[in-house]
Write a structure and sequence with these properties.
Blueprint (H helix, E strand, L loop, with lengths): L1 H10 L3 H26 L3 H26 L1
Keywords: Chloroplast, Plastid
Length: 70
């Protein structure tokens, strides 16, 4: 009986956890895309600006998302 209760507890996903998890996945794929694109660009100045600018945009989006939910 205890095993069934523990399994049910582990499988239960709250909606707030789902939102945070989806945000985490979105940010990780976004950062992966930016870093991949960063290494494909030939112009070093443009690529460095693009990397820093996108990183700050991602931080602002995540802050706004987390502040609006909680």
């Amino acid at each position: 009986m205890m095993i069934l209760y523990l399994t049910n507890f582990l499988l239960e996903v709250k909606i707030s956890n789902y939102n945070v998890l989806s945000l985490y996945y979105w940010l990780s794929f976004s950062i992966f895309y930016v870093r991949t694109y960063y290494y494909l660009l030939n112009d070093f100045v443009l690529s460095a600006y693009f990397l820093v600018n996108t990183k700050s945009i991602s931080k602002n989006i995540s802050r706004r998302y987390l502040n609006s939910k909680y």
